[in-house]
Amino acid sequence: MVNQRIAVIVNPTAGKRRHHSVQRFVDYLEKANCEVLVKKTRFQGHATELARELADSGEYTHIVAAGGDGTIAEVAEGIVGSGVILCVLPIGTANVFAHELSIAFNEIQNAADIIKGHWVRLWPACLFNDGKRSLSIQMIGIGIDAHIVHHISSRLKRMIGKTAYLFQTIRSLWQYPFYEMLVSIEGRATEKATAVIISKGAFYAGNYRLLPWSKQKEKAFSVLLFQSPSKMSYLYAVAAFFMGKIADCKHIKIVKAEKVKIEANTRIPIQSDGDARGCTPATIEISTKALKVAIPA
Ligand SMILES: Nc1ncnc2c1ncn2[C@@H]1O[C@H](COP(=O)(O)OP(=O)(O)OP(=O)(O)O)[C@@H](O)[C@H]1O
Questions:
Q1: Model pLDDT, residue 160
Q2: Domain boundaries, position 14
Q3: Where would I find the DAGKc domain in this sequence (predicted)?
């Protein structure tokens, strides 16, 4: 008898392209009597199309996003509100969402956890900008971190992984003027900032804790505002982040919110889950539809 019907959507360009991980994951599920369908993405956004078709078919209980945070966000977009369980096979570069939910990086353990059947209901964030709506499962950055994502070489990222971000950070610090933004929080308070991070969870840039009190299971997101135009102060904040002391920084303000609006006199770059997502002005709010996400027991 078939245990579960599971579709796996693989981004063949994610991370270091660990095809053997996907194969071992699929083999384990099949040995456990699951019926598994594997689909590879062919272009950016394809994972959303595939996930939507598979969810609409009503034939699959689980859809696995095999890739990094960008692939997970695309699959989430296709199945949000459908009742299909989103699973994660972390084979991307930073894999922040997998760290956040303590998903096993060992594919056999991961497959075994999926079969056990535990899941959690999460409320992703919705980004509205450039006339489009997109879903974000982990975090959105506006300002310098988005400039880094917009300009990082994907070839270098595939070759040296996360170290590529270090090189681009140095370049972006040199090139990017810290433009001022106006951040309206819940339509009430308005704050000034030169960089903003909106995060559903605690982790950032892999498995570093940026906002330890931020919990994926809560509806609201955390809004981190960096409020100085000084690049030296920004470097100090980055050092504090790596030492786990970001909240002690003088130019940092952190608030909880379910809706923010960001405007500026110029178009400021935005990244969502590590992928470039256009520019400001933007509104970010909690999705009205939830996601069911597989987690370890
Ligand atoms: N076949 C494809 N060709 C080119 N790009 C693709 C293809 N399939 C997916 N993509 C795009 O690849 C981008 C990066 O994917 P993803 O974020 O999953 O990997 P990553 O950047 O290595 O990992 P992370 O976000 O965890 O650092 C996404 O924007 C996605 O749309």
A1: 86
A2: 5-117
A3: 1-132
Ligand 1 centroid to Cα of residue 9, in Å, is 12
Question: Within this chain, do residues 93 and 171 fall inside the same structural domain, yes or no?
Answer: no
Does residue 296 lie in a domain region? no
To test ligand 1's pocket by mutation, which of 49, 71, 145, 158 has the most ligand atoms within 8 angstroms of CB? 71
What is the per-residue pLDDT across 83-108, written as a single tens digit (0 to 9) for each?
999 999 999 988 999 999 999 999 99
Amino acid 128: pLDDT: 98
Q: Shortest CA distance to 26 belongs to which of 66, 56, 54, 55?
A: 66
CA of 255 to the centre of ligand 1 (A): 30
Tell me: do 145 and 101 sit in the same domain: no
Q: How many domains does the chain have?
A: 2
CA distances from 258 to 120, 145, 198, 278 (A): 20, 22, 10, 21
Å from CA of 123 to ligand 1 middle: 22
- What is the reported pLDDT for 93? 86
